[in-house]
Amino acid sequence: IKLIEAADYDEMSRQVAAIIIRQVKEKPDAVLGLATGSTVLGTYHELVADHRQNGTSYRRVRTVNLDEYVGLGPDHPNSYRYYMNHHLFGQLDIPIDQTHVPDGLAVDLDEECRRYERLIDELGGIDLQLLGIGRNGHIGFNEPGTPFSTATHVVELTELTREANARFFPSFDDVPRYAITMGIATILRSRRIVLLASGEEKAEAIARLLEGVVTPDLPASALHLHPDVTIIADREALALIP
Ligand code: F6R
After folding, report:
1. How far away, in angstroms, is 134 Cα from ligand 1 center?
2. How do the domains of the chain map onto residue ranges?
3. Which of 158, 241, 232, 157 is CA-nearest to residue 204?
4. pLDDT of 92-142, one tens digit each?
5. Which residue in 84, 86, 89, 141 has the fewest CB atoms around it within 10 Å?
6. Best CA proximity match to 195, nearest among 165, 233, 221
7. Where does the chain have alpha helices with state H?
8. Which CATH architecture is the domain 2-188+210-233 placed in?
9. Ligand 1 pocket test: which of 34, 138, 193, 232 has the largest number of ligand atoms within 8 Å of its C-beta?
């Protein structure tokens, strides 16, 4: 794992955006694996600003998102599809049918998970996967205890994750209980992985990750099994590194 220290959130966002822009220039039809949440927002702002200023084009890019809440459709402001359309896709020149997010409204959720795995294969695999990290070390919605061998699957969210995400919902009870997520095996099949971490609330997870013990108790530790992982973290997220 390669570690890059950024001074603060904005510098982290600029560095991650630069990696994505380079990837898209090198391979204009790249497959980008994308995440939602707070940490990646600055990166998406940077990509949009660069697209407007420098004309970097996403016309041939394909994207696959990590996860989606079960029960929330594209028009629901808390769905990850809505987030992606709003913060990124709607502000770039990417055709929307080249963007993919698991369908949280699918009638047959297990079939939706299998379809999503097939889709990633048909796209030729993920060139560059962006990841955030949960305070408990989750990646995607793969919570502690998830076997590393899992493909895309339905998960029941932990209380901690639902609490962490409750800030986006009217109340805790409105946070969905289930989600569809790429599995750890799906994530590890990406050719390259970039994990972002910002803020002191991520410091413990990053310190545990960098200790190097590989265990399902810390889902992100699976990244030690991958040959091309970069962590870009700000000083606060690295505060507990000896
Ligand atoms: C989001 C995702 C999650 C987040 C993680 C960090 O698609 O898969 O694993 O990356 O929960 O979230 P933030 O960035 O909001 O702290």
Report:
1. 6
2. 2-188+210-233
3. 241
4. 999 999 999 999 999 999 999 999 999 999 999 999 999 999 999 999 999
5. 86
6. 233
7. 9-26, 41-54, 80-87, 109-122, 159-165, 184-188, 203-211
8. 3-Layer(aba) Sandwich (3.40)
9. 138
* 50 close to 21: Cβ distance less than 8 angstroms: yes
Q: Do residues 229 and 33 make contact, with C-beta atoms less than 8 angstroms apart?
A: no
Euclidean distance between CA atoms 59 and 179, whole angstroms = 29
pTM of the predicted model over 0.95: yes
Q: Is 61 left (phi over 0), alpha (psi -120 to 50) or beta?
A: beta
Give the tens place of pLDDT for each residue, 149-176. 999 999 999 898 899 889 989 999 999 9
| 108 Cα to the center of ligand 1, angstroms | 25
Question: Parallel, antiparallel, or unpaired for β 67-69 and 178-181?
Answer: antiparallel
| Confidence at residue 77, expressed as pLDDT on a 0 to 100 scale | 95
The distance of Cα 209 from the centroid of its chain, to the nearest Å, equals 17
